[in-house]
Design brief:
The termini are far apart. Helix 5 packs across helix 6 and helix 6 crosses helix 7. The longest helix is centred in the last third of the chain and has 18 residues. The protein is an alpha/beta fold.
Length: about 400
């Protein structure tokens, strides 16, 4: 077990370490975000612009149909409430004080010296949310969390730990966004997720950033025997740069992971997105499904599956659509280190077929409606349970993409 001193030394040595993928940012250009902003006792008391920002990131201020809510503004935990007695939600710093055993889960999946972004988060003693579903408990409604950049030219450092214990079930909707007027900032998010034997975690993330935001999440999920992890990721609005490559480690027999990604790269955006699964136990399964569109930006869609145990089964699907100018690159990786495994992949990059548009127009649709319908169908990977306001905002964004494509 590494001591705090050893981890600090590792982080200090890695504070200038360039990440393997994505644009390299100079963190010295950004101030550390505030840690002592005022508390928000009731999300309904926020101004109308802020509440709309939350809604567009999947977070409902009235907290209706939510078992709990968590809001982090810059580096301040601004709001945390929990209605469901079967779920635990609080700031990570408070949780570390309450639970001595939590030390065994902190910085165990994500390495402090992975790159400058993990090192920065460790050295800043990043706070974030702690969510725990106790053994055998099943939350009746999702927990909602929101990480908000409230000021320009700052760095937000976040460290989250989620634990779903044996035979428990938890749904989480998390939104990451910026307040109105905040165009340039850096978000560094560390998430360590543990799903115990027979546990189920459904995790939906909505990114709704501004045009000059740099985003560097670092996420690892550990699954035990018979555990299930379903991840939905949505990014439809402009952003400067996102580089995200979450890894699911299937360490228990029969564990299952599914990643769904839908993303749009607007002009000036660079998206390096993907997911990775390590099959470290027999009879494990995974599905990685990616749908990306460029309307002028750059997309790199990665997907990697590594089979280290017998009877591993996985499917990787990367589909990219080019509208107007832009770049799409799909990088599927399959690796089998034992026999008797089944890993498959399907990758395709291209434009909307003219014949498809003409077919729909012949049935009474305008060109704009036809393109919008094709785009909507392309992005549909079966994500359900989104708030009505977010679903409406997604439809509006897709419609605009269709208009811009003509």
């Amino acid at each position: 077990m590494q001591t705090g001193t050893a981890l600090k030394e590792k982080a200090e040595k890695a504070i200038t370490k360039v990440a393997m993928y994505g644009e390299d940012f100079n963190l010295d250009e950004f101030k550390v975000g505030d840690r002592d902003l005022p508390e928000t006792k009731n999300l309904e008391d926020l101004d109308s612009d802020f509440k709309q920002t939350l809604l567009n990131a999947g977070v409902v201020p009235d907290e209706k149909d939510r078992s709990g809510s968590f809001l982090m503004l810059d580096n301040t935990v601004s709001h945390s409430t929990m209605r469901d007695p079967d779920v635990e939600l609080m700031s990570l710093h408070d949780a570390m004080k309450k639970h001595d055993w939590l030390e065994e889960y902190s910085w165990k999946l994500v390495a402090v010296d992975a790159d400058k972004y993990t090192a920065k988060s460790y050295l800043e003693n990043a706070n974030g949310y702690f969510i725990r579903a106790p053994a055998g408990k099943k939350s009746s409604m999702p927990v909602q969390t929101c990480l908000v950049m409230g000021h320009k030219d700052v760095t937000q450092t976040v460290h989250n730990i989620l634990i779903v214990e044996e035979d428990a079930q938890l749904d989480v909707i998390t939104g990451c966004t910026t307040k109105k007027g905040v165009e340039r900032a850096m978000h560094l998010g560390i998430s360590e997720i543990y799903v115990k034997k027979g546990g189920v975690l459904n995790f939906t993330m909505i990114h709704n950033w501004a045009e000059e935001i740099g985003v560097r999440p670092r996420t690892v999920i550990h699954l035990e025997e018979g555990a299930t992890f379903v991840n939905n990721y949505i990014l439809l609005k402009p952003v400067r740069s996102i580089q995200s490559y979450p890894t699911a480690i299937l360490d228990g027999e029969g564990a299952f992971a599914r990643f769904h990604t839908i993303a749009v790269a607007h002009p000036g955006s660079e998206l390096d997105l993907g997911s990775r699964v390590l099959f470290n136990a027999p009879n494990t399964k995974a599905e990685l499904v990616s749908r990306t569109i460029t309307t002028g930006g750059k997309v790199i869609a990665r997907g990697e599956m590594v089979a280290n145990e017998l009877h591993s089964k996985g499917h990787l699907e990367c589909h990219g659509l080019v509208l107007n100018e832009g770049t799409q690159r799909a990088i599927p990786i399959l690796e089998a280190n034992v026999d008797d495994v089944e890993l498959t992949h399907e990758a395709a990059v291209g434009r909307i077929a003219k014949e498809q548009v003409e077919y729909l127009m012949a049935r009474g649709l305008t060109e704009e409606e036809a393109v919008g319908m094709i785009v909507r169908g392309f992005l549909d990977v079966g994500i359900t349970g989104l708030p009505d306001e977010l679903a409406a905002d997604i439809d509006k964004t897709i419609a605009q993409i269709g208009r811009d494509a003509i």
